[in-house]
Specification:
The structure is a single chain. This protein is mainly α. The radius of gyration is 15 Å and the shape is globular. The two termini are 22 Å apart. The longest helix has 22 residues. The protein is built from seven helices and no strands. Helix 3 crosses helix 4, helix 5 crosses helix 6 and helix 6 packs antiparallel against helix 7. Helix content is 61%, strand content 0%.
Amino acid sequence: MLISELEKIINYKFNNKNLINEALIHSSYVSKKNNPNNLNYERLEFLGDRVLGLILAEYFFKILPDAKEGVLNNYFQKSANQEFLAEYAKKINLSKFIKTQKGDNLKDNDSVLSDVVEAIIGAIFLDTNINNCKTFIISE
């Protein structure tokens, strides 16, 4: 699938296409031709998870000024969990862009789908800045 198609769906155009390509590669995808450095989304997922957490914490802190920590945490947990992120990935048909080893049925795995969403957040953060991540996360 074309990266430009995904960029339209997520409403973000990457300056560095290598970042979005890396965000879409599962560790099972091995190809000397297409993935000579054996890149995968795991490092971007790590970063994206932290960026997502920060943005959501700030968002709920601001929109719920009288909420106690427990309430804020409940909102946070509902928005940053695997199920929520996987549902978003399914909504945008993200699985058709993910590269996995042939024969694996990982593209529809909720864990993989949520991980790739976090990797995309990490890629956006590295590509530009946290404000574009906020736009991506909060507008969805």
